[in-house]
Amino acid sequence: SSVKEKNNNQQYRAEIMDRLLKRCRIKSRLFRECLAEFFGVYILILFGCGSVAQVTTSQNTKGEYPSINLGFALGTTFGVYVPKGVSGAHLNPAVSLTLCVLGRFSWTRLPFYVWSQLFGAFLAAATVALQYYDAIMDFTGGHLTVSGATATAGIFSTYPADYLSLWGGVVDQIIGTAALLVCVLALGDPHNTPAPPGLEPVLVGAAVLVIGISMGSNSGYAINPARDFGPRLFSYIAGWGDEVFRSLLCSSRLHLIDQKYSKNSNTVQYYYNIKKFAFYFNIFVNVIYSCDTKLNFQQSLLQSSVMLIYCSRNISDYDQC
After folding, report:
1. Which residues are listed as membrane-spanning (predicted)?
2. 95 and 236 inside one domain
């Protein structure tokens, strides 16, 4: 009788749990997929940026560059396992966009996936900052900087090396992202030799690992807009300031400015502000012009992009800009 009572109690608890789960179940399929993408990217950034935080704040005494590669590789692996059965585990706007172009994913779902991925990366960066708050404050002395001996902005997002030019950075990211996409698409191609069922996340993590080992020195192999922009936005809000965005345009050419205007640092800032004003004013004029003449808005943005590239290439000579 006691055995029957135990079985009855277990069955009753199981029924209660089933009822609760059914009531709590999210009915919207799109919302479930977005939530799955959110948690997948969250796991990826939590382990990846967490490994960078440990290496940085310990000054390489508790890990080195290979441990960062492993952190992002294993973070990718477990990040793919979490949402794989719900959303397909894109975890990357570049992957989602590529699948849309290939006709394997709906364009209407793309913005929802991208926002979920960005939000997951943002909150994961906030979690890492909370977990390593004391370590970051001790390492930096309370001064949050993007560059220098005690820079910590690199915990959350990637930055170009001092020697890297603007076009070198563009080429670097194109090659790295293309390599990732080729590997991901090959692993899931039924007409090729697809990965064994259940092992896809492990092999995707291995692809991230080998990209990090072979393509990480130039600009940190972000190869994922959500992985970089979400944490970068957090670092901007959390106290690192707008330098987290400005350094992307200026770091590769800043030494030229320093050499030309080393006698007066105010001159550097003055000419930099002129360049920035010229670029944004050009965007404004092009948008107004496109509205008046009914031109394609994309054409005006293209003109603005050309202006930005021209200024960046000629950053050592502000008279031309």
Report:
1. 30-53, 65-82, 112-133, 166-187, 202-223
2. yes
The answer to whether residue 248 scores a pLDDT higher than 70 is no
* 32 has pLDDT over 90: yes
| Count of CB atoms situated within 10 Å of the CB of 163 | 10
Q: Which residues of 210-232 are buried (b: 16+ CB within 10 A; e: fewer)?
A: ebbeebbebbbbbbbbbbbbbbb
CA–CA separation, 2 and 61 (whole Å):
58
Residues 140, 177: one domain?
Answer: yes
Q: Is the pTM here over 0.85, yes or no? A: no
E-strand stretches of 156-284 = none
Residues 219, 259: one domain?
Answer: no
Task: Please give the residue range of the domain that contains residue 282.
Answer: 254-313
Residues 6+ apart with CB under 8 A from 314: 320, 321
pLDDT tens track for 287-298: 444 444 444 444
Query: What pLDDT score was predicted for residue 152?
Result: 93
